[in-house]
Description:
The chain has one domain (2-164). Helices cover 39% and strands 16% of the residues. The chain is built from six helices and four strands, in the order αβαβαβααβα. Strands 1-4-2-3 form a four-stranded antiparallel beta sheet, covered by helices on one side. α1 crosses α6 (150-164). The two termini are 27 Å apart.
Amino acid sequence: MKKILAQAKTELEVALLDIKKFSAFKSKFLYFNTNDLSEKHVNEIILPKINLDNQVIYIIKLNGICNLTEALNKYKSSDAKIKLPKINKENFNSEVLYVGSVQNNFKGRLKQHLGFGSKSTYSLKLDKWAKKEKLEIIIEYFVLENTNSVITLRLIENILANILKPQFGKH
Protein backbone atom coordinates (compact mmCIF):
# COMPACT_ATOMS: atom_id res chain seq x y z
CA MET A 1 0.00 0.00 0.00
CA LYS A 2 2.90 2.37 0.77
CA LYS A 3 4.20 1.92 -2.78
CA ILE A 4 0.82 2.74 -4.28
CA LEU A 5 0.40 5.86 -2.12
CA ALA A 6 3.92 7.02 -3.00
CA GLN A 7 3.17 6.58 -6.70
CA ALA A 8 -0.12 8.48 -6.32
CA LYS A 9 1.69 11.32 -4.53
CA THR A 10 4.30 11.50 -7.31
CA GLU A 11 1.65 11.56 -10.02
CA LEU A 12 -0.30 14.30 -8.25
CA GLU A 13 2.87 16.37 -7.84
CA VAL A 14 3.50 16.06 -11.60
CA ALA A 15 -0.10 17.10 -12.30
CA LEU A 16 0.21 20.14 -10.02
CA LEU A 17 3.44 21.18 -11.75
CA ASP A 18 1.68 20.82 -15.12
CA ILE A 19 -1.21 22.99 -13.95
CA LYS A 20 1.17 25.68 -12.67
CA LYS A 21 2.75 25.84 -16.15
CA PHE A 22 -0.57 26.77 -17.73
CA SER A 23 -0.76 30.51 -17.24
CA ALA A 24 -3.68 30.90 -19.61
CA PHE A 25 -5.68 28.57 -21.75
CA LYS A 26 -6.41 29.70 -25.28
CA SER A 27 -9.99 28.64 -25.86
CA LYS A 28 -11.33 27.86 -29.29
CA PHE A 29 -15.02 27.78 -30.11
CA LEU A 30 -17.40 25.94 -32.41
CA TYR A 31 -20.96 27.18 -32.92
CA PHE A 32 -23.90 25.39 -34.52
CA ASN A 33 -27.64 24.82 -34.26
CA THR A 34 -28.84 21.31 -33.47
CA ASN A 35 -31.35 21.73 -36.30
CA ASP A 36 -28.39 21.64 -38.73
CA LEU A 37 -27.00 18.36 -37.42
CA SER A 38 -26.43 15.80 -40.12
CA GLU A 39 -23.47 13.54 -40.72
CA LYS A 40 -22.58 15.57 -43.81
CA HIS A 41 -22.71 18.88 -41.89
CA VAL A 42 -20.57 17.45 -39.08
CA ASN A 43 -17.97 15.96 -41.47
CA GLU A 44 -17.80 18.91 -43.88
CA ILE A 45 -18.45 21.98 -41.69
CA ILE A 46 -17.80 21.30 -38.00
CA LEU A 47 -14.92 18.79 -37.83
CA PRO A 48 -12.65 20.51 -40.41
CA LYS A 49 -12.47 23.53 -38.07
CA ILE A 50 -10.54 21.41 -35.57
CA ASN A 51 -6.83 21.09 -36.26
CA LEU A 52 -5.73 19.30 -33.11
CA ASP A 53 -6.14 15.89 -31.66
CA ASN A 54 -4.48 15.39 -28.28
CA GLN A 55 -5.06 16.34 -24.63
CA VAL A 56 -8.26 18.38 -25.03
CA ILE A 57 -10.67 19.67 -22.41
CA TYR A 58 -14.07 20.59 -23.84
CA ILE A 59 -17.28 22.19 -22.63
CA ILE A 60 -20.53 21.73 -24.52
CA LYS A 61 -22.98 24.47 -23.64
CA LEU A 62 -26.14 26.22 -24.72
CA ASN A 63 -26.48 29.81 -25.81
CA GLY A 64 -28.85 30.44 -22.88
CA ILE A 65 -30.47 28.20 -20.32
CA CYS A 66 -32.84 25.40 -21.24
CA ASN A 67 -33.75 22.39 -19.11
CA LEU A 68 -33.14 19.40 -21.36
CA THR A 69 -33.47 16.61 -18.82
CA GLU A 70 -37.03 15.79 -19.92
CA ALA A 71 -36.05 15.62 -23.59
CA LEU A 72 -33.10 13.33 -22.84
CA ASN A 73 -35.17 11.16 -20.47
CA LYS A 74 -37.84 10.74 -23.14
CA TYR A 75 -35.30 9.57 -25.68
CA LYS A 76 -33.53 7.37 -23.12
CA SER A 77 -36.77 5.53 -22.38
CA SER A 78 -37.38 4.90 -26.10
CA ASP A 79 -34.09 3.02 -26.54
CA ALA A 80 -32.86 1.23 -23.44
CA LYS A 81 -29.70 -0.04 -25.18
CA ILE A 82 -28.32 3.40 -26.02
CA LYS A 83 -25.58 4.71 -23.71
CA LEU A 84 -26.39 8.27 -22.66
CA PRO A 85 -24.74 10.34 -19.93
CA LYS A 86 -26.00 10.57 -16.39
CA ILE A 87 -28.61 13.29 -15.87
CA ASN A 88 -27.67 15.73 -13.12
CA LYS A 89 -31.18 16.76 -12.04
CA GLU A 90 -29.90 19.35 -9.60
CA ASN A 91 -28.16 21.21 -12.47
CA PHE A 92 -31.16 21.65 -14.78
CA ASN A 93 -30.74 25.44 -14.78
CA SER A 94 -27.16 25.32 -16.08
CA GLU A 95 -26.28 26.46 -19.58
CA VAL A 96 -23.50 23.85 -19.57
CA LEU A 97 -24.55 20.48 -20.96
CA TYR A 98 -21.33 18.51 -20.59
CA VAL A 99 -17.69 18.85 -19.52
CA GLY A 100 -15.24 16.32 -20.87
CA SER A 101 -11.68 15.56 -21.78
CA VAL A 102 -9.96 13.34 -24.26
CA GLN A 103 -6.35 12.16 -24.54
CA ASN A 104 -6.49 11.72 -28.29
CA ASN A 105 -8.98 11.78 -31.17
CA PHE A 106 -10.98 14.85 -30.14
CA LYS A 107 -12.72 14.83 -33.53
CA GLY A 108 -13.94 11.28 -32.94
CA ARG A 109 -15.18 12.09 -29.44
CA LEU A 110 -16.97 15.19 -30.67
CA LYS A 111 -18.58 13.18 -33.46
CA GLN A 112 -19.97 10.80 -30.81
CA HIS A 113 -21.47 13.68 -28.81
CA LEU A 114 -23.05 15.09 -31.95
CA GLY A 115 -24.75 11.75 -32.58
CA PHE A 116 -22.65 10.01 -35.20
CA GLY A 117 -20.84 7.35 -33.23
CA SER A 118 -21.49 4.03 -31.55
CA LYS A 119 -24.66 3.44 -29.52
CA SER A 120 -22.51 1.66 -26.95
CA THR A 121 -20.32 4.68 -26.12
CA TYR A 122 -21.53 7.08 -23.46
CA SER A 123 -22.05 10.46 -25.14
CA LEU A 124 -24.72 13.13 -25.62
CA LYS A 125 -25.81 11.94 -29.10
CA LEU A 126 -27.39 15.35 -29.75
CA ASP A 127 -28.60 14.40 -33.22
CA LYS A 128 -30.84 11.72 -31.75
CA TRP A 129 -32.81 13.81 -29.23
CA ALA A 130 -31.90 17.51 -29.36
CA LYS A 131 -32.27 18.17 -33.07
CA LYS A 132 -35.92 19.12 -32.84
CA GLU A 133 -35.17 21.42 -29.88
CA LYS A 134 -33.34 23.77 -32.30
CA LEU A 135 -30.66 24.65 -29.76
CA GLU A 136 -27.77 27.03 -30.29
CA ILE A 137 -24.74 25.03 -29.15
CA ILE A 138 -21.30 26.35 -28.28
CA ILE A 139 -18.37 23.99 -27.87
CA GLU A 140 -15.44 25.58 -26.09
CA TYR A 141 -12.23 23.59 -26.10
CA PHE A 142 -8.57 23.99 -25.34
CA VAL A 143 -5.46 21.89 -25.61
CA LEU A 144 -3.20 21.01 -22.72
CA GLU A 145 0.17 21.32 -24.39
CA ASN A 146 3.40 19.97 -22.98
CA THR A 147 1.82 17.31 -20.84
CA ASN A 148 1.06 13.65 -21.26
CA SER A 149 -0.39 13.31 -17.80
CA VAL A 150 -3.84 11.75 -17.75
CA ILE A 151 -4.13 12.88 -14.14
CA THR A 152 -3.64 16.53 -15.15
CA LEU A 153 -6.34 16.17 -17.78
CA ARG A 154 -8.83 14.51 -15.40
CA LEU A 155 -8.06 16.91 -12.57
CA ILE A 156 -8.82 19.98 -14.69
CA GLU A 157 -11.92 18.31 -16.14
CA ASN A 158 -13.26 17.49 -12.67
CA ILE A 159 -12.56 20.98 -11.32
CA LEU A 160 -14.34 22.58 -14.28
CA ALA A 161 -17.31 20.24 -13.92
CA ASN A 162 -17.52 21.02 -10.22
CA ILE A 163 -17.59 24.75 -10.95
CA LEU A 164 -19.76 24.74 -14.10
CA LYS A 165 -22.30 22.12 -12.93
CA PRO A 166 -23.23 20.51 -16.25
CA GLN A 167 -26.74 19.13 -16.82
CA PHE A 168 -25.25 15.80 -17.96
CA GLY A 169 -22.21 13.67 -17.21
CA LYS A 170 -20.58 11.59 -14.51
CA HIS A 171 -19.42 14.52 -12.38
